[in-house]
Structure formats: C-alpha cells, structure tokens
Specification:
The complex is a heterodimer of chains A (119) and B (110).
Chain A (H helix, E strand, L loop, with lengths): L2 E4 L3 E3 L5 E8 L7 E7 L5 E8 L4 E4 L7 E6 L4 E6 L8 E8 L6 E4 L3 E5 L2
Parallel strand pairs in A: 2-11
Antiparallel strand pairs in A: 1-3, 3-8, 4-5, 4-9, 5-6, 7-8, 9-10, 9-11
Chain B lengths: L8 E4 L5 E6 L11 E6 L6 E4 L13 E6 L2 E6 L8 E8 L5 E3 L3 E5 L1
Chain lengths: 119, 110
C-alpha cells in the first residue's frame, strides 16, 4: 500500500518561500494526481492545486496563482509544492494527497507539514 | 471558487441518524457526480469516507452513506457512535478543472 511521507516542519519569515516534499513509499504516484491541501489553525480544508507527475502538468486554485508551484520527480516518486511571498496567514498545516480517480477523491494523505510564517 | 456550504455543527445521540448537507452550484456539486466526504479527527489527516457521491472505499462502515439532489450533496451517518465525533468535509470537482472543499461540519455525539 502506498504511503505519502512529507518533509518536516518549517519556519519562514514573511516574504520568503517554502518548499514541501511528498514522497511515495511502497509504490508510485506517477499515474495519479497529487493534490495539495492546507488547513490554517482551527480552520477548514483549502484546496491549493494538483500535479499529474507522469504528465508534469499542474493546476492551481485561482487564489494561489502566481505564488504556488507544484513539481514532481518521477525517479524518486516525490512531489513538491513551493509557496512564495509568504505571509503570516500562510501559517498552516500543508497536506499532500493522492486523488484516486481525478474526481476530488483523495484516498491517501500525507501526515502533514506545519509551516509557520513569523517575523 | 467559493467554498461549498455546510452547517457548522450537527449533533445526535448514540444510535440515531444524522445528515450533513453540502450545498454548491451547478458548476460544482450540481454539475458532476464527483462529490467526496472526509472525516477528520483532531490532529489527524482527513480520511476519505465517500467518493463519487455514494461510493464507500474499502473498510468504511456501511453506516456512512452519501447522496445528491441538484446542487446539494448529503452525508448520512446512521447508528451514530461515539467514534463518529469529528469534523466532516465535502469536496467536489468544479467546471474550472479544480476542486473545492466545503466549510466543514463538527459532529457531536451527545
């Protein structure tokens, strides 16, 4: 069974960037859509974007257009999400998840990466 | 893309049934049979409970069921148990080729 293992917690200053990784262990994610979701403290889930590793194509929520970049390295079965120009309200838990059928059905989730933006 | 609308909270006694609604538009919930539901316990990652409106992944109890009518999808939990106390979120594919989550519903077992 595939598991998604994310990189560790990060602390960044406003205006900087952060890159979160999501590695598939026990399988590959090449043929699936990998989605990025964030959750600010005490708040709901927010869809940020997705990437199809085998195609290298990405799609983002309008809110994050121009600030977020999703990439993937098929050789290491790892997906990445980079968020730039960080603000304090970007402080959140960031999750990667596998979309099992490209229909907003996220069946496997990473453990989450806490990103704190503070001066 | 605006978040789908869910009630902030729903409660029920053990053994009862509860229903959580998820209201969108014809550009998301109403336009596709691609609505999913997630359960999230505090400090944990979300867990897929229902996909494609009414399908249960392997291992999910049949106490959980989903349906859709027009622009509103629903999740019903029957035979409510203490372990069902959690936050629940719906999600939908959209006409913009993106996905969107609901606002979330806190389920309390009385």
């Amino acid at each position: 069974q595939v598991q998604l293992v994310q990189s560790g917690a990060e602390v960044r200053k406003p205006g900087s960037s952060v890159k979160v990784s999501c590695k598939a262990s026990g399988g590959t994610v090449s043929n699936y859509v990998i989605t990025w979701v964030r959750q600010a403290p005490g708040q709901g889930l927010e869809w940020m974007g997705e990437i199809i590793p085998i195609l290298g194509t990405a799609n983002y929520a309008q809110k994050f257009q121009g600030r977020v970049t999703s990439t993937a390295d098929e050789s290491t079965s790892t997906a990445y999400m980079e968020l730039s120009n960080l603000r304090s309200d970007d402080t959140a838990m960031y999750y990667c998840a596998r979309d099992m059928s490209n229909t907003a059905a996220f069946d496997i989730w990473g453990q989450g990466t806490m990103v704190t933006v503070s001066s | 893309q605006s978040a789908l609308t869910q009630p902030a909270s729903v409660s029920g006694s053990p053994g009862q049934s509860i229903t959580i609604s998820c209201t969108g538009t014809s550009s998301d919930v109403g336009g596709y049979y691609y609505v999913s539901w997630y359960q999230q316990h505090p400090g944990k990652a979300p867990k897929l409970m229902i996909y494609d409106v009414s399908n249960r992944p392997s291992g999910i109890s049949n106490r959980f069921s989903g349906s859709k009518s027009g622009n509103t999808a629903s999740l019903t939990i029957s035979g409510l148990q203490a372990e069902d106390e959690a936050d629940y979120y719906c999600s939908s594919y959209t006409s913009s080729n993106t996905d969107v989550f609901g606002t979330g519903t806190k389920v309390t077992v009385l």
